[in-house]
């Protein structure tokens, strides 16, 4: 089976397994997803979803957050870890949104990459979830699973994984596919325990099982 055919089969099976999979960060505005994805670095989405409630209660708009002192932001987001650098990036990012983009998140991948604290993973998440554009989010679950399944061969660098997946994943499927990998990675193809291959919907086509 070619990698492209394997990818299509994996996509269809994960669709059946996780039909409603979506972003596990809570947000109702694009800028809030931008904040949450920065806080999610080395932190669980569940914790981020709790912490941002206090952040948005105090700073409910881009303008309010842009006007806040980084130290005040840090006091609230500290439970997410790396509080100082995350607060600094959030503060700088909101100032740019306010001053350059009229408080809106730009609908442009390269413009997103120029925002403080925004890398390819974050930019792809915004493009896919907020704007409905083709996107591939290479988080730790994605990288682990596509290597195990055999969609990529021993590639761990996020950008290289992303580039390989673009070759075999239909653009309209990329964003949802990556969300489903997160669900599957948490529930079945786990990192901290032995993966539960016996209950995996991909077991018969997975490279790990064929080795």
pLDDT < 50 runs, ≥5 residues: none
Biggest sheet: strands, sense, closure?
A: none
Helix content: 55-70%
Q: What gap, in angstroms, lies between the N and C termini? A: 15 Å
Shape: elongated
What is the strand content? under 5%
Distinct helical segment count: 12
Order of helices and strands: HHHHHHHHHHHH
List the helices and strands and how they pair.
Elements: H1 3-17, H2 30-39, H3 45-58, H4 62-67, H5 70-77, H6 83-100, H7 109-113, H8 120-129, H9 140-149, H10 158-166, H11 174-187, H12 207-210
Keywords:
211 residues, mainly alpha, 12 helices, elongated
Concise synopsis of the structure shown:
This protein is mainly α. It is built from 12 helices and no strands.
Overview of this protein structure:
This protein has 12 helices and no strands. It has 211 residues and is mainly α. The radius of gyration is 18 Å and the shape is elongated.
